[in-house]
Amino acid sequence: MSRRTAVIADDHGMYRMGLAFTLKDRLGFDDVEEAGSLDEALARLGENGDIALALFDLSMPGMASAASLAAVRECYPDLPIAVVSASENRNDVLEALAAGVNGFVPKRLVDADLVAALQAIVDGAIFVPSSMALGAAGRTAPPAAHVIDLTRLTPRQRDVLGLLVQGRSNKEIARALDLGHGTVKIHLAALFRHLGVHNRAAAVAAAAPLLAKL
C-alpha cells in the first residue's frame, strides 16, 4: 500500500515544520517532503510519484508570482495544489485561481480553520475564504494583452531558456543545470506559457531576439 505524501514549499523552516505536523497529525498524511524554493519543490514532485497534496508559498526563491504555478498544474493535472500565503491581495488570489490551483489559504487561519481548508482541498473542493471574496457576481478583470517580458522570468527559467535557444535537448538541459527531467519539463511549460507559444521552435523564435537585448 503506497504512503500518502505531501509537499510543502516555503522558505520559512519553522512554518514548514508546523504545517507538516498539522498534515500528519490532523489530516493523516504519512510523509511530508519540505522544500525551501520552487526549484526544490519541482524536484520533489519529479522524484516522488505518490504526492497527494502540494502547498506553495508565494514569497520564496524561484516563485515569480502565483502564475508560476500554471506550469505545475499543466504537468500534474490531477494533483491537489494550493497556495498557503501571508498575502491576502485579491490579485494574487485571482492569479492563483487562473493558474489552476485548488485553493488559496491565508497563513493567519487558526488551527481548526486551517485543517478544514486543507481537508476541503484534499477532498476536491476549491477553497477561498469568504473574507477574500473575488467581487460581486464573481467578476474579474478582462485579460491584458500578451506581453513578453523576459525580466519577469526566474533565474532558473532564464538558464533553461538560454540553453533551449542554443538548441539543447531536455536531456542536455537537465545535465547542464543538474536538474531532473521532470523539472526541466515544468520549466519549459512555464516558459511556453510566458512566451505565448506551444512548442520549442516557436519559443526559440520568440525569445532569441529578446535574449540578445538583455
Q: What pattern of helices and strands is seen along the backbone?
A: EHEHEHEHEHHHHH
Largest sheet: 5 strands, parallel
- Intertermini distance: 51 Å
Low-confidence stretches: 135-145
Strand order of the largest sheet: 2-1-3-4-5
CATH 2nd-level architecture of the largest domain: 3-Layer(aba) Sandwich
How many structural domains in the coordinates? Answer: 2
CATH fold node name of the largest domain: Rossmann fold
Q: Number of helical runs?
A: 9
Shape: globular
Give the class from helix and strand content and strand pairing: alpha/beta
Helix content: 40-55%
Quickly name the level 1 CATH class of the largest domain: Alpha Beta
List the helices and strands and how they pair.
Elements: E1 5-9, H1 13-25, E2 31-35, H2 38-47, E3 51-56, H3 69-75, E4 81-85, H4 90-98, E5 103-106, H5 111-122, H6 155-165, H7 170-177, H8 181-195, H9 200-213
Parallel strand pairs: 1-2, 1-3, 3-4, 4-5
Helix pairs in contact: 2-8, 3-8, 6-8, 6-9, 7-8
InterPro entries: CheY-like_superfamily, EvgA-like, NreC/VraR/RcsB-like_REC, Sig_transdc_resp-reg_C-effctor, Sig_transdc_resp-reg_receiver, Tscrpt_reg_LuxR_C, WH-like_DNA-bd_sf
Pfam family, one: Response_reg
Modified residues (4-aspartylphosphate): 57
Describe this structure in words.
This protein is α/β, with parallel strands linked by helices. It has 2 domains: 5-138, Rossmann fold; 150-213, Winged helix-like DNA-binding domain superfamily/Winged helix DNA-binding domain (Arc Repressor Mutant, subunit A, Orthogonal Bundle), CATH 1.10.10.10. It contains 9 helices and 5 strands. It has a 5-stranded parallel β-sheet with strand order 2-1-3-4-5, with helices on both faces.
